[in-house]
Structure of Ras-related protein Rab-24:
Amino acid sequence: MSGQRVDVKVVMLGKEYVGKTSLVERYVHDRFLVGPYQNTIGAAFVAKVMSVGDRTVTLGIWDTAGSERYEAMSRIYYRGAKAAIVCYDLTDSSSFERAKFWVKELRNLEEGCKIYLCGTKSDLLEEDRRRRRVDFHDVQDYADNIKAQLFETSSKTGQSVDELFQKVAEDYISVATFQVMTEDKGVDLGQKANPYFYSCCHH
Ligand SMILES: Nc1nc2c(ncn2[C@@H]2O[C@H](COP(=O)(O)OP(=O)(O)OP(=O)(O)O)[C@@H](O)[C@H]2O)c(=O)[nH]1
């Protein structure tokens, strides 16, 4: 992958152990690694080429370390990111508090970064619904407030993992198309009020 152009810088953020690395593993290699948990040190990078309609998009994914010890380093990795997948563990309420911390930072410091909230380990809820510690509707309200997309995923079963990354790529294409239309063709931004113009750029 070295030397390949990356279209979208994506950063994975969230408390340690929420399953960021597992999410990337499932998406990129379609596998779920079992065995002892190994925390990420610093950050890891992987690029993935994908299709959106007839377009090809290369996602450059930075998987950051969730440990607070590496907090300063994570800030370096989210700089310039176009998308942030902010993860929390559906069975751990403190991980959602940590997710809100990252959302606040991104909203203050990375205006151009689109936020995707991701509740992880949904398979554990299928086994036993009482394990849920983060209410879906509360998060949906929060997501609506901050204009974020919300996904609940399982890296173990693969549930909604492809959909999440596909949405990131689709949103990138929408924004890029919108920018080309406004910059190259001198489209008046006031036209956004026109429903046709708006719907062609926002799915
Ligand atoms: N049941 C279940 N377990 C998961 C899932 N995703 C991750 N895990 C487990 O949760 C633990 C932590 O997963 P990681 O992917 O290493 O977590 P992380 O967020 O990258 O952790 P840091 O690198 O410390 O930030 C591991 O034991 C995984 O096997 C999931 O979807 N379902």
The CA atoms of residues 84 and 115 lie 5 Å apart. Residues 189-203 have pLDDT under 50 and may be disordered.
